[in-house]
Every structure is written in C-alpha cells, then in structure tokens.
Amino acid sequence: MKTSFHRSQTLGYKNGFAFSRLPTVGIGGERLYVNQLSQAELDELSNQRPTLTYGPAKRAPPSGFIPAHVAFDKKILKFDAYFQEDVPLSAEEHYRIRQVGIYYYLEDDSMSVIEPVVQNSGLPQGKLIRRHRVPKNDQGEHYHWKDLNRGMNITMYGRTYCIVDCDPFTQVFLESQGLELNPPEKMVFDPYTELRRMPVRKYITPSDFDQLKQFLTYDKQVLRFYATWDDTNSIFGENRHYVIHFYLADDTVEVREVYRQNDGRDPFPILIKRQRLPKTFVDKKKTFPSCVLEISDQEVLEWFTAKDFAVGKTTTLLGRTFFIYDCDEFTRNFYRDKFGITDFQPVEIKEKSLEEVPRVIPPYNGFGVLEDSLQNCFSLFPKPPRKDIIKMLENDHKVLRYQVALESPNPEDRKRRFILSYFLSNDMISIYEPPVRNSGIIGGKYLGKTRVAKPGSTTENPTYYEPSDLTIGSTIEVFGHRFVITDADEYVLNYMESNAESFPAATLPILHFFYSDIPWLRTSKRELDELIVQVQEELNLHKNLKKKNIQEAFLRCDKDGSGILDKAKFLALCDSLGVPTNTILLNKVRRKGCCVHGQGIYVSECALNKGTQGFAVLEFIGEHSALRNLQCGKSPSCFHSKNGR
C-alpha cells in the first residue's frame, strides 16, 4: 500500500566542492537502519560475481574510453570529383569542367570542397565550400561518410559533383566499415583547357603572294561604287542608296548609307563595317549563320575581291543585293589599267513614284467646332483654324437681332418667344428666351454662341446660315429645332439698306412696312394683333372642330397641287366643314390686306398695292384654332396657303 517512492538527495557542496553522501532516509522517506551498507560496499556487491568452486572470479578491467576527436584525429576521407559549369557568353566554349577534391573529416563529420589553384586561370579557385556539416535535405539531415561512394553524384548547395575516385586510405576505411565501393571512373577534363594546351599553328606566307607587299603598294587606295538596295517588295521596304568602299590594301569591304535632308532616318554612317566578306562557303549548311563575328578560312571557299564589283551589275553582301549604277574617277582608272575595262557608262536609276493614298476624313462626331475638330485629321499637332481678322475688325460689336417662335406640336411651346442674335464678326448665332412670369418655363440662355449649319450640309463642304437667310417668315433649323422668324429690330433694316446687294429683293419692302413713318401703317401691326386675338376667341368657342378632317378636305380640293383656291370655293369648303367665317371679322381682315404669320404679322405684296386686297387661310392646330404661317393671295379672288395647303 506504499504511495511515495521519491529518493533523497545524495549530492552536495562543501567549501565550493561537490561531494557525495549517503542518504539519510530511505525510499519514500522510510527510516534507515543503523547497520546499512556504505557506498563502497554497495559498489563491490554490484560487481561481485557468483562464487565458483575454486574461489571468486577475477574482474575484467573496464575498457578505456577514447573520444572521437582523439580516435579520428587527422583522419580524413578524400574523394576526387568534378562539376560542369555553363558558359553562356562565350563563342569559344559552351561549358566548363572544373576538378575538385571533396574532404570528409571523421572527427566531427564535417566536409569541405577545394579546387586546385591553376595559375592564370582567371577563375576564383581554392576553397569552394568551407569546412562544416553539409545539409543533406530539408529534413535537417546532414551528409555522412556512408552517403559517399565512387561513381555517384552528390548535390551540395545547388551544385552537382560527380565522384570518380578516392585515395587508398578512404578505400581501406570504407571497406573496413563494410561499405562496398563502386569501381573507379576516369576523370573528365575541360575541353577548352585541352585545346589551349595544343601547339599554336604557325602560318607560313606563300612565296607567290606577299601581304606586306600588297599593303605597301595599295595603302590608302580605295575603290568607290555607288549602289542601291531595292527592298520595295517587302512590307515597309523602300529603295535606299549606299556607297561601297573596297580597300585594296587588305581586300576589305565597307558599306555606308547615303542620307538626305529630312529623310526621317537616324544618321548611322556605317551599314557594314570594314571587314573581309565571304563570297562562297565550303559546303554551307542551312543551320550555319551567314553573319557571324569570326569566320575563318576553313568555312569560306572564296572571298570578295576587286573583280567581283562592276558598274551595271548586282552583288550580294551578307544577304542584301546591291545594284551598282556608278563609280568614281579613281575606280575607273584602276579597272582600266588593271583589267582593261573601258565601259563605265552609269545607269540611270528611276525611282518608283509612291502611290498617293487618298485622305479619308472621318465623319463629324458633333464635339467642338467643325473646323477646329477637322485640324486633328491633318496634323499630329493640330493648329487652330485661320480666322478672317479683317471681317472681325470691321464687324466687331455688330449684331442682328430677330424675334423667333418655336415651331412645335406642343401647345405650350407656341407661346414661347426667343431672341436670335446673329454676330456678323464670326457668323455665330445665339438664342435667348426672355423669362415670362407664371409661364412655367425657365427662361435664359437657350443656345450659346456657335455656328449653325444649314440642313443638308456635309462635313466636306459645310454651309452655315448667313444674314441673307434670316428674313421674316423664314424657318431656321437649329440642331433639330425649327424656329420661325417673326420680327426684327430697326438695326437689321439699316444694315439691309446699307448692304442691299447681299439680300433678296423681296426682303427689304417687308421690313419697310414695319418701320415705316406712315401713321396708318404703324398702327396696322397693333390692330392686326387685336384682330388675331378676336379670331382666336371666336374659334376657341367651337370645340368640335377636328384638324385632321379639315386638312384632308383642303388637300382634296387642291387637285393640281398649286396651293391656290378661289374665294368662292374656299368659303363653300369652310361652310361644309362647319368652320365659322364671321362676316365682320372677315371684312376686317380684307380691309387690312395682311397675312397672319404664326402670331406675328407681315404685309404682302398685294397689300402694298392700293386697291388690292389680300385674304388669309384658316388652319386649325390641335384642339384650338388659330391663324398661322400663311401667305396672302396675289389677287382678290384667290387664297394662297403655305406648304401647298
């Protein structure tokens, strides 16, 4: 039933030194008897063996402990290995073989990699990996001597080493530990290093040709040819001019490009630098590059010489075909003395005329002024369109003002009045609507200053409204909205009188009527306004009149489409349709001899002739009836309606 099993402390310190002592209590705190055994006796009993017949057996001495840094001191395993290194930026070698020695230290299982130093190698050689325990994988394991063997690859820090052999001590140690070694392999050597060890080739100048003599004879003597390269068959190709120089001193060729003023090309002076150009290769393969930095005599069968250039012939230099059309005077003398050639007639070069591409102007998108937006199609950096400065100075602050009415099927828009301003300095139009109290419509600026094109105008040939188009009674279409000119100010009359040749002949008499000094004519406009109000009140009493039926009846009666009805037929038609024709009101209209135009009045040619009377045609709009936009007849017996009605 014992529950406590702890033992008392047997170690202690006295005067700063550690010593062992016997326990004062037993296991679990039990009492110890006085005759207990000492520590020495307990040690002796633990080592005592059973007593045999001939007495106690002798105890074998314990084996001595030797630490690893003593047992394996200066014992190192050495392996011969190599690794391959890529050389990307060299035309002479693509890879490099580097021989190294891998050292494994048995005393602490550390490793190091050392490359023998080669004098003038140009490589950082010596200790590649310092001595330490090399990690084997990501699990925290390290390389052990059991992982090393001949004929195997080992990867340390991303570099793979191929072990080919080891020294005799390493072989004896591994075999003593029961490790079976692979057969040794041959060491791989660097091919570029072996190539450098080969004896240098010695070139012997043939006795029949002396390069030094050629250099001394033809030094600073150059043949000059004028050639063209026709590349018009390829996309974006063109015919370009070049100068070919052939240096007689060493048979080298140089090609320079001829630049012209404003040709749009960067001034690179040399197309092909001075060098010997191959003419014929030895069994040239498709994979062999034609343009390389170093071409030896082994790849070239024939080089370009002076006899390969002639006026009127083509020659191919590094894939480009040049046509030689002329040469200089020194070249002519050289070929005449050297080869006996006398025909140096230059060839006339006819350059192909470029096809003119028609300029296609995109449609106007409605943003900005038409002339200003059109400049973006002519230049990358558009310039502002030119303005008529003289016209702007002469007509500065000159504005023609008209009163216009909005032509709309909505009854609310018929009572709206606008002020149209035409600026003579730049032919711009602005529209302003005077505010009317309790009308339910916010007045103010209706259209800012802009040039308004006529209906049917195109972006290629735009036509804008001019002062001659703005006459009383004419209709102006402004961005889809139609306005009818009903009145004009007195400045318009003065401007028309001073520029009568720019306006139609029938426009000026109409304005004279409005601003005439005759008393009865000045009162005609006011009286006709009152007459219109009376006619509207009379027609508003008849709610059963329908516009569609009345219009169809008038169109059926106008069989010839002339828009003219005689007086009797007009009155009979009004009676058949139930249109009220009050005799008193009709006589007042006849006496005034005027035509009703919208809600404004203008006098006709008939009214200006004394003894002639004009008549008005009734037109019913919507639910209410009103007189609008009709011209008078040219005789007392006819009625002339607008738009053939």
TrEMBL record:
Coiled-coil intervals, chain numbering: 521-548
GO cellular component, one term: axoneme
Pfam families on file: DM10_dom
Keyword Ion transport carried by entry: no
One GO MF term attached to the UniProt entry: calcium ion binding
GO BP, sorted A to Z: cilium-dependent cell motility; mitotic cytokinesis; mitotic spindle organization
PROSITE patterns: DM10, EF_HAND_2
Domain EF-hand: 545-580
Domain DM10: 73-178, 219-339, 396-500
InterPro entries documented for this protein: DM10_dom, EF-hand-dom_pair, EF_hand_dom, EFHC1/EFHC2/EFHB
Compartment annotation: Cytoplasm, Cytoskeleton, Flagellum axoneme
Alphabetically ordered keywords of this record: Cell projection, Cilium, Coiled coil, Cytoplasm, Cytoskeleton, Flagellum, Repeat
Superkingdom assignment: Eukaryota
Protein name: EF-hand domain containing 1
Source organism of this protein record: Bubo bubo (Eurasian eagle-owl)
